């Protein structure tokens, strides 16, 4: 499938939600296309690559929007990860790519480590209303969801975060988070 592509310094995994501010005409076009069709690909901005995009992206749907002072604010939710190929620009300088869904983490079962991380994430959500407001239905009981939200929130480099995009990196992610968040 072909999707419009939005490169940003944003890391988003399946189930993740973020708010974007849209003001450039080409990205207003992207929003128009995304609402009519199948969403868009939100990829990590890579300034040293030909099209400034990563090899993967979060395939997102627009779940909410509002306009304020001429700027469009959209909330997007990642439904899966996709690989990007055949990237190109259209006449409005909007990127498009062929997108193929890729597997992320297999379903994980709850553990003591997960419960401790979930409790810590709930505490963070309760202290930060701006984050909590993005998630109408948090999934604290889901180990994958909890680990993904931590990876999105932690102040790590994109290179450090991208290690956890690999399909079988869940155990590595959970162990890393347990060490960092719970000592």
Protein architecture, described:
The protein contains 6 helices and 6 strands. Strand 5 and strand 6 form a beta hairpin. Helices cover 33% and strands 34% of the residues. Strands 1-3-4-5-6 form a 5-stranded mixed β-barrel. The mean pLDDT is 95. The protein has 2 domains: 101 residues, Archaeosine Trna-guanine Transglycosylase, Chain: A, domain 4 (Roll); 71 residues. With 183 residues, the chain is of the alpha+beta class.
Order of strands across the biggest sheet?
A: 1-3-4-5-6
Structural class: alpha+beta
CATH class of the largest domain: Mainly Beta
Number of helices: 6
Low-confidence stretches: none
- Beta-strand share of residues: 25-35%
What's the number of extended β-strand segments? 6
Terminal CA distance reads 43 Å
Q: Could you spell the SSE succession in H and E letters?
A: EEHEEEEHHHHH
Largest sheet: 5 strands, mixed, barrel
Tally of distinct domains: 2
- At the fourth level of CATH, the homologous superfamily of the largest domain is LON domain-like
Task: Please state the overall shape, judged from the principal axes of the Cα atoms.
Answer: globular
What Rg do the Cα atoms give? Answer: 17 Å
CATH topology of the largest domain: Archaeosine Trna-guanine Transglycosylase, Chain: A, domain 4
Give the proportion of residues in helices: 25-40%
Organism: Pseudoalteromonas phenolica
Protein name: Lon N-terminal domain-containing protein
Domain Lon N-terminal: 3-136
